[in-house]
Amino acid sequence: MDLNQMIGKTYTSVKGRPGDDELVFTATDGTVFTFYHHQSCCESVSINEIVGDLDDLVGTSLLTATGTVTVRWFGRSNGYYSERVDLMVNGERQW
């Protein structure tokens, strides 16, 4: 998953809150970045906590050194299934 493609873009919206199963960034150029969990079977993954204000990421170019917003995810499974967070760009899964 290459997060560098998000750097330098300006976002019109960033949507997600604790309990949600995805976090969606929409850029001014129309690119949509969706953080989510690709469901395999019996696991669940959701946003557990957001430290900072997602609105701080809207309307300015995303840089690596300008403030922080931390999104903590929580996953639960029987130990057999992955609990990782995946990324889709414009609806296409990124590996």
How would you summarize what this structure contains?
The chain is an all-beta fold.
Describe the overall structure.
- There is one protein chain.
- The protein has a 5-stranded antiparallel sheet with strand order 1-2-3-6-7, with no helix packed on it. A two-stranded antiparallel ribbon has the order 4-5.
- It is mostly beta strands and 95 residues long.
- It has one domain.
- It contains no helices and 7 strands.
Going across the biggest sheet, name each strand in turn: 1-2-3-6-7
Report Rg: 14 Å
Q: Based on the structure, what is the oligomeric state of the protein chains?
A: single chain
Q: Count of DSSP helices?
A: 0
Number of domains: 1
End-to-end Cα distance, whole Å, is 5 Å
Low-confidence stretches: none
Q: What attributes does this structure have?
A:
95 residues; mainly beta
How is the topology of this model organized?
Blueprint: E1 11-15, E2 22-27, E3 32-36, E4 44-51, E5 70-76, E6 86-89, E7 92-94
Antiparallel strand pairs: 1-2, 2-3, 3-6, 4-5, 6-7
